[in-house]
Amino acid sequence: MRRTLIAGNWKMYKTPSEAVVLAEAVVKRLSAPDGIDVVICPPFTALEAVGKVVVGSRVGLGAQDVHWEKEGAYTGEVSAEMLRDLGCRYVIVGHSERRQHFGETDERVNKKGLAALASGLTPIVCVGETLSEREAGRANEVVAAQVKGALSGWASRDVQFLALAYEPVWAIGTGQTATPSRADEMHAHIRMTIAGLFGADVAKEVRILYGGSVKPENAKELLQQSEIDGALVGGASLDADAFASIVKAAKSS
Ligand code: PGA
Protein backbone atom coordinates (compact mmCIF):
# COMPACT_ATOMS: atom_id res chain seq x y z
CA MET A 1 0.00 0.00 0.00
CA ARG A 2 1.42 3.32 -1.06
CA ARG A 3 0.79 6.15 1.41
CA THR A 4 -0.35 9.35 -0.23
CA LEU A 5 2.20 12.16 -0.08
CA ILE A 6 1.32 15.82 -0.52
CA ALA A 7 4.39 18.04 -0.86
CA GLY A 8 4.47 21.82 -0.97
CA ASN A 9 7.23 23.41 -3.05
CA TRP A 10 7.56 27.00 -1.88
CA LYS A 11 10.21 27.77 -4.53
CA MET A 12 11.97 31.13 -3.98
CA TYR A 13 9.15 32.60 -1.92
CA LYS A 14 9.02 33.63 1.75
CA THR A 15 11.68 35.15 3.95
CA PRO A 16 12.34 33.18 7.14
CA SER A 17 9.88 35.31 9.12
CA GLU A 18 7.18 35.06 6.44
CA ALA A 19 7.83 31.33 6.21
CA VAL A 20 7.20 30.91 9.95
CA VAL A 21 3.78 32.54 9.59
CA LEU A 22 2.84 30.28 6.67
CA ALA A 23 4.19 27.14 8.35
CA GLU A 24 2.24 27.91 11.53
CA ALA A 25 -0.94 28.31 9.49
CA VAL A 26 -0.32 25.00 7.69
CA VAL A 27 0.36 23.13 10.94
CA LYS A 28 -2.77 24.61 12.51
CA ARG A 29 -4.99 23.51 9.63
CA LEU A 30 -3.50 20.04 9.47
CA SER A 31 -3.36 19.07 13.11
CA ALA A 32 -5.41 15.89 12.88
CA PRO A 33 -3.61 12.80 11.59
CA ASP A 34 -5.37 11.34 8.55
CA GLY A 35 -2.96 8.77 7.14
CA ILE A 36 -1.56 11.17 4.57
CA ASP A 37 2.08 12.24 4.53
CA VAL A 38 2.52 15.99 4.25
CA VAL A 39 5.75 17.88 3.68
CA ILE A 40 6.59 21.51 3.08
CA CYS A 41 9.74 22.59 1.27
CA PRO A 42 10.72 26.20 2.03
CA PRO A 43 13.88 27.89 0.70
CA PHE A 44 17.16 26.90 2.40
CA THR A 45 17.21 30.13 4.40
CA ALA A 46 13.90 29.30 6.08
CA LEU A 47 14.53 25.62 6.82
CA GLU A 48 15.74 26.11 10.37
CA ALA A 49 12.92 28.44 11.38
CA VAL A 50 10.24 26.31 9.71
CA GLY A 51 11.78 23.19 11.23
CA LYS A 52 11.11 24.64 14.68
CA VAL A 53 7.47 25.24 13.76
CA VAL A 54 6.77 21.77 12.36
CA VAL A 55 8.72 19.73 14.89
CA GLY A 56 6.35 17.37 16.71
CA SER A 57 3.58 17.99 14.16
CA ARG A 58 2.49 15.71 11.32
CA VAL A 59 4.03 18.10 8.77
CA GLY A 60 7.47 17.07 7.54
CA LEU A 61 10.29 19.32 6.39
CA GLY A 62 11.95 19.14 2.98
CA ALA A 63 14.47 21.11 0.95
CA GLN A 64 14.31 22.05 -2.72
CA ASP A 65 17.78 20.94 -3.81
CA VAL A 66 20.94 19.31 -2.50
CA HIS A 67 24.55 18.88 -3.55
CA TRP A 68 25.84 15.34 -4.07
CA GLU A 69 29.10 15.63 -2.12
CA LYS A 70 29.16 15.27 1.67
CA GLU A 71 31.27 18.42 2.09
CA GLY A 72 34.00 20.31 0.32
CA ALA A 73 34.97 23.40 -1.60
CA TYR A 74 31.61 23.94 -3.32
CA THR A 75 30.77 27.57 -2.63
CA GLY A 76 27.06 28.15 -2.29
CA GLU A 77 26.08 24.49 -2.06
CA VAL A 78 24.36 22.52 0.71
CA SER A 79 24.88 18.83 1.47
CA ALA A 80 22.37 16.15 2.37
CA GLU A 81 23.96 15.77 5.81
CA MET A 82 23.43 19.47 6.46
CA LEU A 83 19.76 19.15 5.53
CA ARG A 84 19.34 16.06 7.63
CA ASP A 85 20.91 17.76 10.63
CA LEU A 86 18.36 20.59 10.29
CA GLY A 87 15.53 18.08 10.52
CA CYS A 88 14.75 17.60 6.83
CA ARG A 89 13.30 14.26 5.82
CA TYR A 90 12.74 15.00 2.14
CA VAL A 91 14.44 16.83 -0.69
CA ILE A 92 13.19 17.76 -4.15
CA VAL A 93 15.69 16.73 -6.82
CA GLY A 94 15.74 17.60 -10.52
CA HIS A 95 12.86 20.04 -10.56
CA SER A 96 12.28 21.26 -14.12
CA GLU A 97 13.15 24.82 -13.10
CA ARG A 98 16.56 23.57 -12.06
CA ARG A 99 16.89 21.54 -15.25
CA GLN A 100 15.88 24.60 -17.29
CA HIS A 101 17.74 27.41 -15.54
CA PHE A 102 20.61 25.80 -13.65
CA GLY A 103 21.99 23.15 -15.98
CA GLU A 104 20.66 20.19 -14.02
CA THR A 105 21.38 17.05 -16.04
CA ASP A 106 20.13 13.50 -15.55
CA GLU A 107 23.60 12.65 -14.28
CA ARG A 108 23.46 15.31 -11.58
CA VAL A 109 19.92 14.33 -10.67
CA ASN A 110 21.19 10.79 -10.26
CA LYS A 111 24.08 11.83 -7.99
CA LYS A 112 21.83 14.08 -5.92
CA GLY A 113 19.21 11.36 -5.46
CA LEU A 114 21.84 8.86 -4.33
CA ALA A 115 23.37 11.39 -1.92
CA ALA A 116 19.96 12.14 -0.43
CA LEU A 117 19.28 8.45 0.01
CA ALA A 118 22.67 7.86 1.66
CA SER A 119 21.80 10.50 4.26
CA GLY A 120 18.39 9.04 4.97
CA LEU A 121 16.41 11.68 3.08
CA THR A 122 13.55 10.77 0.77
CA PRO A 123 14.37 12.23 -2.63
CA ILE A 124 11.38 13.53 -4.57
CA VAL A 125 12.79 13.17 -8.06
CA CYS A 126 11.01 15.26 -10.69
CA VAL A 127 10.57 14.26 -14.30
CA GLY A 128 8.41 15.66 -17.08
CA GLU A 129 8.33 16.60 -20.73
CA THR A 130 8.21 20.07 -22.29
CA LEU A 131 5.38 21.16 -24.56
CA SER A 132 7.48 20.76 -27.69
CA GLU A 133 8.49 17.25 -26.64
CA ARG A 134 4.84 16.38 -26.06
CA GLU A 135 3.80 17.87 -29.38
CA ALA A 136 6.52 15.88 -31.13
CA GLY A 137 5.04 12.69 -29.63
CA ARG A 138 8.13 12.14 -27.49
CA ALA A 139 6.67 12.55 -23.98
CA ASN A 140 6.90 8.87 -23.03
CA GLU A 141 10.40 8.50 -24.37
CA VAL A 142 11.68 11.65 -22.64
CA VAL A 143 10.16 10.77 -19.28
CA ALA A 144 11.41 7.18 -19.42
CA ALA A 145 14.93 8.45 -20.17
CA GLN A 146 14.75 10.82 -17.18
CA VAL A 147 13.55 8.03 -14.89
CA LYS A 148 16.31 5.68 -16.08
CA GLY A 149 18.93 8.42 -15.73
CA ALA A 150 17.78 9.30 -12.23
CA LEU A 151 17.78 5.69 -11.06
CA SER A 152 21.00 4.50 -12.62
CA GLY A 153 23.06 2.62 -10.04
CA TRP A 154 20.24 2.42 -7.47
CA ALA A 155 19.99 -0.83 -5.51
CA SER A 156 16.50 -2.31 -5.83
CA ARG A 157 16.13 -2.47 -2.04
CA ASP A 158 16.46 1.33 -1.91
CA VAL A 159 13.84 2.14 -4.52
CA GLN A 160 11.07 1.92 -1.90
CA PHE A 161 12.52 5.09 -0.32
CA LEU A 162 12.10 7.08 -3.51
CA ALA A 163 9.24 9.34 -4.47
CA LEU A 164 8.92 10.42 -8.09
CA ALA A 165 7.02 13.46 -9.26
CA TYR A 166 5.66 13.65 -12.78
CA GLU A 167 5.46 17.33 -13.62
CA PRO A 168 4.76 18.13 -17.26
CA VAL A 169 6.75 21.32 -17.77
CA TRP A 170 3.89 22.95 -19.71
CA ALA A 171 1.62 22.56 -16.67
CA ILE A 172 3.88 24.17 -14.07
CA GLY A 173 2.66 27.57 -12.93
CA THR A 174 0.53 27.93 -16.06
CA GLY A 175 -2.88 27.00 -14.72
CA GLN A 176 -2.97 24.18 -17.26
CA THR A 177 -3.12 20.68 -15.84
CA ALA A 178 -2.77 17.35 -17.54
CA THR A 179 -6.20 15.72 -17.64
CA PRO A 180 -6.44 13.19 -14.82
CA SER A 181 -6.59 10.29 -17.25
CA ARG A 182 -3.62 11.52 -19.24
CA ALA A 183 -1.61 12.01 -16.06
CA ASP A 184 -2.64 8.54 -14.90
CA GLU A 185 -1.41 7.04 -18.18
CA MET A 186 1.97 8.70 -17.78
CA HIS A 187 2.21 7.49 -14.19
CA ALA A 188 1.52 3.95 -15.39
CA HIS A 189 4.23 4.39 -18.00
CA ILE A 190 6.66 5.59 -15.31
CA ARG A 191 5.79 2.62 -13.11
CA MET A 192 6.35 0.27 -16.05
CA THR A 193 9.73 1.87 -16.65
CA ILE A 194 10.67 1.28 -13.00
CA ALA A 195 9.39 -2.30 -13.28
CA GLY A 196 11.64 -2.78 -16.31
CA LEU A 197 14.61 -1.75 -14.17
CA PHE A 198 13.84 -3.35 -10.82
CA GLY A 199 10.84 -5.66 -11.27
CA ALA A 200 7.12 -5.19 -10.76
CA ASP A 201 7.16 -5.79 -6.99
CA VAL A 202 9.63 -2.97 -6.44
CA ALA A 203 7.81 -0.67 -8.86
CA LYS A 204 4.51 -1.07 -7.09
CA GLU A 205 5.94 0.38 -3.86
CA VAL A 206 7.12 3.66 -5.45
CA ARG A 207 5.02 6.73 -4.84
CA ILE A 208 4.47 8.74 -8.00
CA LEU A 209 3.18 12.26 -7.39
CA TYR A 210 1.59 14.53 -9.95
CA GLY A 211 2.64 18.18 -10.15
CA GLY A 212 1.66 21.11 -12.32
CA SER A 213 -1.07 23.58 -11.34
CA VAL A 214 -2.60 21.33 -8.67
CA LYS A 215 -5.29 23.33 -6.87
CA PRO A 216 -8.13 22.57 -4.45
CA GLU A 217 -10.51 22.49 -7.44
CA ASN A 218 -8.69 19.78 -9.39
CA ALA A 219 -6.90 17.85 -6.65
CA LYS A 220 -9.60 15.32 -5.90
CA GLU A 221 -10.07 14.18 -9.47
CA LEU A 222 -6.33 13.87 -10.00
CA LEU A 223 -5.75 12.03 -6.73
CA GLN A 224 -8.58 9.61 -7.43
CA GLN A 225 -6.58 8.10 -10.29
CA SER A 226 -5.19 4.74 -9.34
CA GLU A 227 -1.60 5.54 -10.35
CA ILE A 228 -1.45 9.00 -8.76
CA ASP A 229 -0.11 8.69 -5.22
CA GLY A 230 0.08 12.31 -4.24
CA ALA A 231 0.87 15.80 -5.43
CA LEU A 232 3.78 18.20 -5.63
CA VAL A 233 2.13 21.56 -5.21
CA GLY A 234 3.80 24.88 -6.11
CA GLY A 235 1.66 28.01 -6.19
CA ALA A 236 -1.21 26.64 -4.11
CA SER A 237 1.15 25.58 -1.32
CA LEU A 238 1.82 29.26 -0.55
CA ASP A 239 -1.74 29.58 0.71
CA ALA A 240 -2.39 27.57 3.88
CA ASP A 241 -6.12 27.18 3.17
CA ALA A 242 -5.55 25.98 -0.39
CA PHE A 243 -2.80 23.59 0.68
CA ALA A 244 -4.92 22.17 3.50
CA SER A 245 -7.83 21.72 1.07
CA ILE A 246 -5.60 19.70 -1.23
CA VAL A 247 -4.60 17.45 1.66
CA LYS A 248 -8.29 17.04 2.53
CA ALA A 249 -9.07 16.20 -1.10
CA ALA A 250 -6.39 13.53 -0.94
CA LYS A 251 -8.03 12.05 2.12
CA SER A 252 -11.43 11.83 0.53
CA SER A 253 -10.25 10.51 -2.82
P1 PGA B 1 2.64 24.78 -9.61
O1 PGA B 1 4.14 24.23 -9.42
O2 PGA B 1 1.77 23.97 -8.69
O3 PGA B 1 2.72 26.23 -9.26
O4 PGA B 1 2.29 24.54 -11.05
C1 PGA B 1 4.41 22.88 -9.24
C2 PGA B 1 5.89 22.68 -9.09
O5 PGA B 1 6.66 23.39 -9.76
O6 PGA B 1 6.35 21.83 -8.30
Describe the structure.
The protein is an alpha/beta fold and 253 residues long. The mean pLDDT is 96. 43% of the residues lie in helices and 15% in strands. α1 runs parallel beside α2 and α7 packs across α8. It has an 8-stranded parallel beta barrel with strand order 1-2-3-4-5-6-7-8, surrounded by 7 helices. It starts with a strand and ends with a helix. α1 links the parallel β1 and β2. The chain has a single domain, classed as TIM Barrel (Alpha-Beta Barrel), CATH 3.20.20.70. It is built from 11 helices and 8 strands. The longest helix is centred in the last third of the chain and has 19 residues. Bound molecules: 2-phosphoglycolic acid. The site of 2-phosphoglycolic acid has 13 residues, from β8.
Q: How many β-strands, per DSSP? A: 8
Major sheet, described briefly? Answer: 8 strands, parallel, barrel
Oligomeric state as shown: single chain
Mean model confidence by pLDDT:
96
What ions, cofactors and ligands are bound?
2-phosphoglycolic acid
Measure the end-to-end span: 15 Å
CATH class: Alpha Beta
Q: What is the CA-based Rg, rounded? A: 17 Å
The CATH homologous superfamily is termed Aldolase class I
How is the CATH topology named?
A: TIM Barrel
> How many helical stretches?
11
Number of domains: 1
Order of helices and strands: EHEHEHEHHEHHEHHEHEH
Strand adjacency order, main sheet? 1-2-3-4-5-6-7-8
Q: Which descriptor suits the 3D outline?
A: globular
Which blocks of ≥5 consecutive residues have pLDDT under 50? none
Structural class category: alpha/beta
Residue share in β-strands: 15-25%
CATH architecture: Alpha-Beta Barrel
Helix content: 40-55%
